[in-house]
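Field notebook, page 757. I keep forgetting to write these up properly, so this time I am using the form the group agreed on. The chain and the ligand, manganese (II) ion, are recorded exactly as supplied. Prediction of the bound pose follows.
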Amino acid sequence: MADTPKKTAEAPAGAIAERKEFDPAVEECYARLEEKVRASSIHMDMARIRAAFELAAEAHEGQKRKDGSPYVTHVVAAAEITAEMGLDEDSIVSALLHDVIEDTNVTHEQIREKFGESVAGIVEGVTKLTRVNFTSREDEQMENMRKMLMAMCNDIRVILIKLADRLHNMRTMDYQTPEKQRIKSLETMQIYAPIAHRLGMQRIKWELEDLSLYYLDPIGYQAIMADVDSRREKLENFMGEMEVKIRARLDEWGIPCSINSRIKHIYSIYRKMYTQKLDMKEIFDLCALRIIVDDISQCYNVLGQIHDMFKPVPGRFKDYISTPKPNGYQSLHTTVIGSEGIPFEVQIRTWDMHRVSEYGIAAHWKYKSGSAGVAAGDEEKFAWVRRLLESQQNSDAQDFFSDLHVDMFADEVFVFSPKGDVINMPAGATPIDFAYSIHSAVGNSMVGAKVNGRITPFDHVLQNGDIVEIITSKGATGPSRDWLKIAKSGSARTKIKQWFKKERREENIVQGREAFESELRHAGLNVADVTPAILEPLLKRLSLPTADDLYAAIGYGGVTAVKTVNRIKEEVSKAQRAAAQKTALDRLNEAADRRGERDAKKRPHSIQGVLVEGLDNCLIKFARCCTPVPGDDIVGFITRGYGVSVHRTDCKNHITGRLDPDGSGRWINVSWADDVNDSYVTTLKLNSRDRSGLVMDIATVLNSLNARVRSLSARDVGVGMATANLTLEVKNLEELNAIIARLETVQGVSEVVRTGA
Ligand code: MN
C-alpha cells in the first residue's frame, strides 16, 4: 500500500453544484464535521470528504440507531472525533465509511475504486476489528487480545478510527439493553481504554473509562459524582483563585502561559479509592491545574515559581520531561498546598507536550502527514512510530513497540472463526491446523476450507486477521498422510496420527512393515537378524504387545522406522559382544579343564577371594596399576593367556579400556567372595612438603598401626616438595582407609592417594 491514493477532487464533476441533500438532522451533523475539518491545520479536500459522506448516507439509508436517529449520524460523529484527533483526510474518509462493508452492500472493491487503496485498506481493517468477539475471553487473555488487535492493524489509523467509533458508541449507549451496555463497557475498559493509554491518548482514555464506569458500577460512579458536585463550587472557586495568583506571578516574571484547571476524571478517583482503599476525603489531587508554556526551560522556571509560592507535598514531584512515560507523555508534576490547606496538583508542560498528552500518537501523525498534505507511505509511517518509541529507553516502550508491529509476532498468527472468535496458532499454520484446533472431529471430517470467503488449498498459510471456515462432510474419508507434512502445530499432527492409529490398522501394518524392512536394509541388517530375542525387549520398552503393533505404530507415525532400526542395531551388536565374551570364557574353562583344575561339582568357587562370573576356575591376578583390596568395587579383564586380571572399577585402565572396541567385550563381572584372604598388597602415594625426618615420621605412624609395610621410599620432587611411595599389605578397604587417615595427619603431608585412579 505504498501508493498514495488518487484524490478524486474532480469527481463527481461540479460536486458542489450537484450536492445531494439529506435529512436535515443528518446535514446538521455533517455541518459540524465540516466545521471541525476546516479548523484542522491539515489541508483537506472537502469534496472528497463530502463524497464519502454521501456514499455512506446512501448506503445506510433507512438504517436507524437504537435511539431512532439515522444510522449515518454515527459514522459522521466518529469522523468528527477523528478530525478532533488531528488525523488526515484518508482517516476522515475511512471513518465515514467504517461501517459500510459490515452493514451495507458496498464492497471493498467499490471503495478502492472511488477512494483508493489506502482508504479501502483502512475500512477493511476496521471491519475486521468489528467482527472480533472480545468478550468471550477470560481475564488473562486480555493482554493477548490487545496484542492481537494491534497486530491486526498494519495501519495505525485503523485502531485510531476504531477508538473514535467506540467512543461515539459509548457516548450513545443509553438506548442499548443493560446486557449490551455491560458487555460493551467491559470490553471498553479491558481493551480499548488500555490501548488508548498505550497510544498516549489521555483524553480519549479518560472519557472511555468514565463512560464504562458509568455502566459497570453506576452506584460507585454516582457516589463520586455526588461528592464532587457537592464540593464543585468550592473547588472551582478555589482553583480560580489559585489561577489568578499564579498568573499574576508569571506575568510579573514575563513568562507567557496558558493556565486551566479541572477536577480529575471520575475513574481516576474511583481507582484510587479502591486500589488504595482511600476515602474520598483522603484523595489528594482532586483538582489539577495545568500550565502550558512555550519551551522546556520555562517549564522549570514555572516549577521554581510554584514551589516558591506554595508548600510542595514531599515525594509528589515527578519529572516526566527528562524521563518521559513509555507512551511518550511528558510534563512536570508537583502537588502543592494552596490556601486553606487544600492540596492540588500542578502539571507544567510545553504546547508540544500538551498535544502529545491529549492525542498521543495521533499528535505525531499530524506533524508527519504535515501541512504539505503529502500522505506518508507505510514505511515512513512505521519509521516515526519506531523513532518515537526508540527515543524512550524503557522496557515498557519496547513492549509497546512489539505490540504494535506485526513482524514482532513472527511466531504467532491470529485468525478468526466465522463467529468472530480469535484463534491463536503458530506462524505458518494452515487450514488443517485451524480445523484441528477447533476439534479433532472437525479436522477428521474436513473436505475443504474457505479463507476470507474463498475456497483455499489446505496448505495455504494463514495470515493475521484471516477469517477461516472449515467445510466438513459426513462422508469425508479422513485425513491424508500428506497432512502430517502440511500441519504446522504439534497438536494437529498428534491428532492426525491418532486418527491413523485408530482407523487404519491393517493399512498401517503393511505400510509400517515396508518402512521398517527398507530401513533395516539401509542399516545393513537382514530381517533374519531380528530374532525374537532381539525384538522382545524392544516391544516391551515401547509397551507394544506384538510385532504387528510395532508395524502399525510405524505406519501411523507414532514410532519412526529409523529410531526402531537404530535400537535393533544396538541390540544386535550387544548380542554379538555377549557372544564374543562367551567364546573367550569357554576357552579359559577348557584350558582349566586341561590343567585338571576345574571343580567337578561346578559350584561357584572363589580364587584368592574373588568370584568370577561364568568361570569356576582360572588364574587370577590383581592388577598392579590399582591394587584392589576387599571392599573396593572390582571388575575383571580376560587377558590373552594369563587368566583374569582384577582391577578397581575406578581404575583408569578399566575406564579407558571399556572404550576400546577390541577389548570392550573382554571385561567381565567379578566380585569379592566371603572367604577373602588376610592380606592383599596395595600401594599408596603421599605428597608432602620436603622436610628432614619425614620418612621417619611416616614409619613411626605405620608402626603404631601394626601395618605390614613392604617398602617405603621418598624422593625430593623439587620446589620443596617430596613424594613417598608406600607398598603394604592390608586385610581390606576398612584397614586401608584407617591407615590413610592416620598418614594424612603426619606433619607436612598434604595428600595420601591410592595409585591407579
Ligand atoms: Mn461504527
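OBSERVATIONS:
- Confidence is low (pLDDT under 50) at residues 1-17, 366-410.
- The first helix runs from residue 24 to 39.
FOLLOW-UP: compare against the apo run.
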